[in-house]
Amino acid sequence: MDLTGSGAGDMHPCCRRALRHVAARAAGRPVEASLRISLNFHPDRVAAGRPILRALATDGSYLSQFATGTSNGGLTAHPGGDRWRWEQSMFGGAYDDAPAHVRPVYGGLNFRHKVVGAAPRFGSAHLRLTAAALARATFCYPDSVLEPTAFAVAERMSLIDLATADRQDELDDYIEAHVHGGVRLDRDVEALVLDPSYRNTEVETAARRLPCPLEWHPGFRLSVAELHRHPGYRGPRYVDLGTALADDGHLTPRLIGDAARSGNHDQQDLKRVWHYLARFGAPAGPPT
Question: Which Pfam families match (predicted)?
Fold first, then answer.
Protein backbone atom coordinates (compact mmCIF):
# COMPACT_ATOMS: atom_id res chain seq x y z
CA MET A 1 0.00 0.00 0.00
CA ASP A 2 1.09 3.59 -0.60
CA LEU A 3 2.16 5.24 2.67
CA THR A 4 2.59 8.84 1.61
CA GLY A 5 0.68 10.62 4.38
CA SER A 6 2.31 13.08 6.76
CA GLY A 7 4.35 11.20 9.33
CA ALA A 8 4.73 8.13 7.11
CA GLY A 9 8.42 8.65 6.61
CA ASP A 10 9.32 8.24 10.28
CA MET A 11 6.85 5.49 11.18
CA HIS A 12 8.02 2.72 13.47
CA PRO A 13 8.31 -0.63 11.63
CA CYS A 14 5.48 -2.08 13.72
CA CYS A 15 3.16 0.62 12.35
CA ARG A 16 3.96 -0.44 8.80
CA ARG A 17 3.39 -4.08 9.69
CA ALA A 18 0.00 -3.24 11.18
CA LEU A 19 -1.05 -1.27 8.10
CA ARG A 20 0.01 -4.06 5.74
CA HIS A 21 -1.81 -6.65 7.85
CA VAL A 22 -5.11 -4.76 7.69
CA ALA A 23 -4.69 -3.83 4.01
CA ALA A 24 -4.43 -7.54 3.17
CA ARG A 25 -7.88 -8.08 4.76
CA ALA A 26 -9.55 -5.05 3.16
CA ALA A 27 -11.59 -4.66 -0.02
CA GLY A 28 -13.53 -1.97 -1.85
CA ARG A 29 -12.93 1.36 -3.57
CA PRO A 30 -10.72 4.19 -2.26
CA VAL A 31 -12.36 6.49 0.26
CA GLU A 32 -13.37 9.98 -0.88
CA ALA A 33 -10.48 12.37 -0.36
CA SER A 34 -12.84 14.97 1.16
CA LEU A 35 -13.58 12.80 4.20
CA ARG A 36 -11.71 13.36 7.43
CA ILE A 37 -10.82 11.40 10.54
CA SER A 38 -11.84 13.05 13.78
CA LEU A 39 -10.68 12.27 17.32
CA ASN A 40 -13.47 13.04 19.81
CA PHE A 41 -12.63 13.77 23.44
CA HIS A 42 -13.72 15.82 26.47
CA PRO A 43 -11.54 18.96 26.50
CA ASP A 44 -11.99 19.75 30.19
CA ARG A 45 -10.90 16.43 31.67
CA VAL A 46 -7.63 15.51 33.37
CA ALA A 47 -5.08 13.11 31.84
CA ALA A 48 -2.29 11.71 34.03
CA GLY A 49 -2.87 14.50 36.54
CA ARG A 50 -2.82 17.29 33.93
CA PRO A 51 -5.69 19.11 32.20
CA ILE A 52 -5.90 17.41 28.83
CA LEU A 53 -5.37 20.53 26.69
CA ARG A 54 -2.37 21.51 28.79
CA ALA A 55 -0.99 18.01 28.30
CA LEU A 56 -1.53 18.32 24.53
CA ALA A 57 0.33 21.62 24.51
CA THR A 58 3.25 20.14 26.44
CA ASP A 59 3.46 16.87 24.51
CA GLY A 60 2.63 18.33 21.11
CA SER A 61 0.91 15.04 20.23
CA TYR A 62 -2.32 13.19 20.85
CA LEU A 63 -1.39 9.92 22.56
CA SER A 64 -3.15 6.57 22.92
CA GLN A 65 -4.58 5.32 26.20
CA PHE A 66 -1.60 2.96 26.44
CA ALA A 67 0.55 6.06 26.91
CA THR A 68 -1.84 8.27 28.90
CA GLY A 69 -3.61 5.71 31.06
CA THR A 70 -6.91 7.51 30.41
CA SER A 71 -9.86 6.87 28.13
CA ASN A 72 -13.39 8.08 27.38
CA GLY A 73 -14.38 4.47 26.76
CA GLY A 74 -13.16 1.34 28.51
CA LEU A 75 -9.72 1.40 30.13
CA THR A 76 -8.12 -1.97 29.32
CA ALA A 77 -4.92 -0.77 27.63
CA HIS A 78 -2.32 -2.93 29.36
CA PRO A 79 -0.58 -6.20 28.49
CA GLY A 80 -3.17 -8.96 28.54
CA GLY A 81 -6.08 -6.51 28.82
CA ASP A 82 -8.99 -6.43 26.40
CA ARG A 83 -7.64 -3.48 24.40
CA TRP A 84 -4.23 -5.16 24.12
CA ARG A 85 -5.90 -8.38 22.96
CA TRP A 86 -8.12 -6.59 20.43
CA GLU A 87 -5.12 -4.80 18.93
CA GLN A 88 -3.20 -8.05 18.78
CA SER A 89 -6.01 -9.54 16.71
CA MET A 90 -6.66 -6.51 14.50
CA PHE A 91 -3.02 -5.79 13.71
CA GLY A 92 -1.61 -9.31 13.55
CA GLY A 93 0.50 -8.92 16.67
CA ALA A 94 2.44 -6.00 15.16
CA TYR A 95 2.32 -4.03 18.43
CA ASP A 96 2.85 -6.87 20.90
CA ASP A 97 6.34 -5.68 21.87
CA ALA A 98 6.00 -2.03 20.89
CA PRO A 99 6.49 0.85 23.34
CA ALA A 100 3.27 2.50 24.47
CA HIS A 101 3.85 5.78 22.63
CA VAL A 102 4.07 3.98 19.27
CA ARG A 103 0.61 2.41 19.41
CA PRO A 104 -2.20 3.87 17.27
CA VAL A 105 -4.66 6.49 18.44
CA TYR A 106 -8.39 5.99 17.97
CA GLY A 107 -10.97 8.14 16.25
CA GLY A 108 -13.64 7.82 13.61
CA LEU A 109 -14.08 8.33 9.88
CA ASN A 110 -16.57 11.19 9.60
CA PHE A 111 -18.43 9.79 6.61
CA ARG A 112 -21.71 11.26 7.88
CA HIS A 113 -20.17 14.77 7.92
CA LYS A 114 -21.22 15.44 11.52
CA VAL A 115 -20.30 18.92 12.71
CA VAL A 116 -19.47 17.44 16.13
CA GLY A 117 -17.06 14.82 14.77
CA ALA A 118 -17.50 11.19 13.84
CA ALA A 119 -17.96 9.75 17.34
CA PRO A 120 -19.47 12.23 19.84
CA ARG A 121 -20.04 9.32 22.23
CA PHE A 122 -16.43 9.99 23.29
CA GLY A 123 -16.61 13.75 23.78
CA SER A 124 -17.94 17.14 22.73
CA ALA A 125 -14.66 18.30 21.15
CA HIS A 126 -12.70 16.79 18.32
CA LEU A 127 -9.45 17.11 16.45
CA ARG A 128 -10.10 17.11 12.71
CA LEU A 129 -7.13 15.49 11.02
CA THR A 130 -5.63 16.38 7.67
CA ALA A 131 -6.39 14.46 4.49
CA ALA A 132 -2.85 13.05 4.59
CA ALA A 133 -3.63 11.14 7.78
CA LEU A 134 -6.02 8.88 5.86
CA ALA A 135 -3.09 7.12 4.16
CA ARG A 136 -1.76 5.78 7.47
CA ALA A 137 -5.03 4.81 9.10
CA THR A 138 -6.89 1.54 9.42
CA PHE A 139 -10.61 1.18 10.03
CA CYS A 140 -13.13 -1.30 11.38
CA TYR A 141 -16.89 -1.57 11.77
CA PRO A 142 -18.38 -1.82 14.29
CA ASP A 143 -16.27 -0.66 17.25
CA SER A 144 -13.33 -2.90 18.10
CA VAL A 145 -14.87 -3.64 21.51
CA LEU A 146 -17.29 -5.86 19.56
CA GLU A 147 -14.39 -7.73 17.91
CA PRO A 148 -15.43 -6.96 14.30
CA THR A 149 -14.46 -8.94 11.24
CA ALA A 150 -14.79 -6.09 8.70
CA PHE A 151 -11.69 -3.93 8.18
CA ALA A 152 -10.47 -1.31 5.73
CA VAL A 153 -7.75 1.10 4.75
CA ALA A 154 -8.24 4.32 2.79
CA GLU A 155 -7.37 2.63 -0.51
CA ARG A 156 -9.86 -0.20 0.10
CA MET A 157 -12.92 1.11 1.91
CA SER A 158 -16.01 -1.13 1.99
CA LEU A 159 -17.15 -0.09 5.49
CA ILE A 160 -19.22 2.95 4.55
CA ASP A 161 -21.79 0.83 2.71
CA LEU A 162 -21.81 -1.59 5.63
CA ALA A 163 -22.32 1.12 8.24
CA THR A 164 -24.91 2.99 6.19
CA ALA A 165 -27.01 -0.15 5.81
CA ASP A 166 -26.82 -0.97 9.51
CA ARG A 167 -29.45 0.31 11.94
CA GLN A 168 -27.59 1.50 15.01
CA ASP A 169 -28.16 4.05 17.72
CA GLU A 170 -26.73 7.42 16.67
CA LEU A 171 -23.94 7.11 19.24
CA ASP A 172 -22.86 3.76 17.80
CA ASP A 173 -22.98 4.47 14.06
CA TYR A 174 -19.32 5.42 13.59
CA ILE A 175 -16.57 3.70 11.64
CA GLU A 176 -13.67 3.32 14.05
CA ALA A 177 -10.32 4.68 12.84
CA HIS A 178 -6.82 3.84 14.05
CA VAL A 179 -4.13 6.35 13.11
CA HIS A 180 -0.65 4.82 12.97
CA GLY A 181 2.60 6.74 13.19
CA GLY A 182 1.50 9.42 15.63
CA VAL A 183 -0.75 12.49 15.61
CA ARG A 184 1.19 15.73 15.96
CA LEU A 185 -0.86 18.85 16.50
CA ASP A 186 1.38 21.03 14.33
CA ARG A 187 1.45 18.59 11.43
CA ASP A 188 -1.61 16.37 11.39
CA VAL A 189 -4.49 18.51 12.71
CA GLU A 190 -6.59 20.85 10.57
CA ALA A 191 -8.45 22.21 13.61
CA LEU A 192 -9.51 21.65 17.18
CA VAL A 193 -13.31 22.03 17.21
CA LEU A 194 -14.90 22.98 20.55
CA ASP A 195 -18.41 23.31 21.95
CA PRO A 196 -19.45 26.96 22.48
CA SER A 197 -20.16 26.32 26.17
CA TYR A 198 -16.38 26.66 26.59
CA ARG A 199 -16.15 30.18 25.19
CA ASN A 200 -14.41 32.56 27.61
CA THR A 201 -13.28 29.71 29.87
CA GLU A 202 -9.92 28.19 30.77
CA VAL A 203 -10.59 25.59 28.07
CA GLU A 204 -10.63 28.26 25.37
CA THR A 205 -7.50 29.86 26.80
CA ALA A 206 -5.68 26.52 26.75
CA ALA A 207 -6.97 25.71 23.27
CA ARG A 208 -5.52 28.94 21.86
CA ARG A 209 -2.07 27.87 23.05
CA LEU A 210 -2.10 24.81 20.80
CA PRO A 211 -0.28 24.83 17.44
CA CYS A 212 -3.46 24.22 15.43
CA PRO A 213 -6.45 26.39 14.47
CA LEU A 214 -9.46 26.62 16.80
CA GLU A 215 -13.02 26.30 15.47
CA TRP A 216 -16.44 26.05 17.14
CA HIS A 217 -19.38 23.82 16.31
CA PRO A 218 -22.98 24.95 16.99
CA GLY A 219 -23.11 23.30 20.42
CA PHE A 220 -24.66 20.47 22.42
CA ARG A 221 -27.63 21.62 24.51
CA LEU A 222 -30.38 19.52 26.07
CA SER A 223 -33.41 20.79 27.94
CA VAL A 224 -34.51 19.05 31.12
CA ALA A 225 -37.93 18.59 29.54
CA GLU A 226 -36.41 16.66 26.61
CA LEU A 227 -34.17 14.70 28.98
CA HIS A 228 -37.24 13.46 30.87
CA ARG A 229 -38.77 12.14 27.65
CA HIS A 230 -36.14 9.37 27.43
CA PRO A 231 -35.92 7.61 30.81
CA GLY A 232 -35.31 4.24 29.19
CA TYR A 233 -32.27 5.30 27.16
CA ARG A 234 -29.70 4.94 29.93
CA GLY A 235 -31.98 4.79 32.97
CA PRO A 236 -34.07 7.08 35.24
CA ARG A 237 -31.22 7.62 37.72
CA TYR A 238 -29.19 9.34 35.00
CA VAL A 239 -32.16 11.49 34.05
CA ASP A 240 -32.34 12.57 37.69
CA LEU A 241 -28.60 13.28 37.80
CA GLY A 242 -28.75 15.27 34.59
CA THR A 243 -31.63 17.27 35.98
CA ALA A 244 -29.60 18.06 39.10
CA LEU A 245 -26.63 19.21 37.01
CA ALA A 246 -28.65 21.40 34.65
CA ASP A 247 -28.47 25.18 34.77
CA ASP A 248 -31.41 27.31 33.70
CA GLY A 249 -33.22 24.15 32.62
CA HIS A 250 -30.49 22.91 30.25
CA LEU A 251 -27.47 20.61 30.17
CA THR A 252 -24.25 21.53 28.33
CA PRO A 253 -20.86 19.82 28.05
CA ARG A 254 -19.28 22.38 30.38
CA LEU A 255 -21.76 21.56 33.18
CA ILE A 256 -20.96 17.85 32.95
CA GLY A 257 -17.25 18.62 32.87
CA ASP A 258 -17.55 20.78 35.98
CA ALA A 259 -19.27 17.86 37.73
CA ALA A 260 -16.56 15.44 36.58
CA ARG A 261 -13.79 17.59 38.07
CA SER A 262 -15.66 18.19 41.33
CA GLY A 263 -15.05 14.64 42.53
CA ASN A 264 -18.62 14.49 43.83
CA HIS A 265 -19.97 12.08 41.22
CA ASP A 266 -19.16 8.66 39.86
CA GLN A 267 -17.44 9.05 36.49
CA GLN A 268 -19.42 6.23 34.93
CA ASP A 269 -22.66 7.92 35.98
CA LEU A 270 -21.52 11.15 34.36
CA LYS A 271 -20.58 9.26 31.21
CA ARG A 272 -24.17 8.09 30.91
CA VAL A 273 -25.48 11.61 31.46
CA TRP A 274 -23.15 12.69 28.65
CA HIS A 275 -24.67 10.00 26.44
CA TYR A 276 -28.07 11.64 26.98
CA LEU A 277 -26.71 15.03 25.99
CA ALA A 278 -24.77 13.66 23.01
CA ARG A 279 -27.74 11.65 21.74
CA PHE A 280 -30.63 14.04 22.27
CA GLY A 281 -28.91 17.45 22.41
CA ALA A 282 -26.63 17.27 19.37
CA PRO A 283 -26.60 20.26 17.01
CA ALA A 284 -27.14 20.42 13.30
CA GLY A 285 -25.53 22.82 10.87
CA PRO A 286 -22.07 23.86 9.64
CA PRO A 287 -19.16 24.66 11.94
CA THR A 288 -18.41 28.30 12.69
Answer: DUF3626 (PF12294)
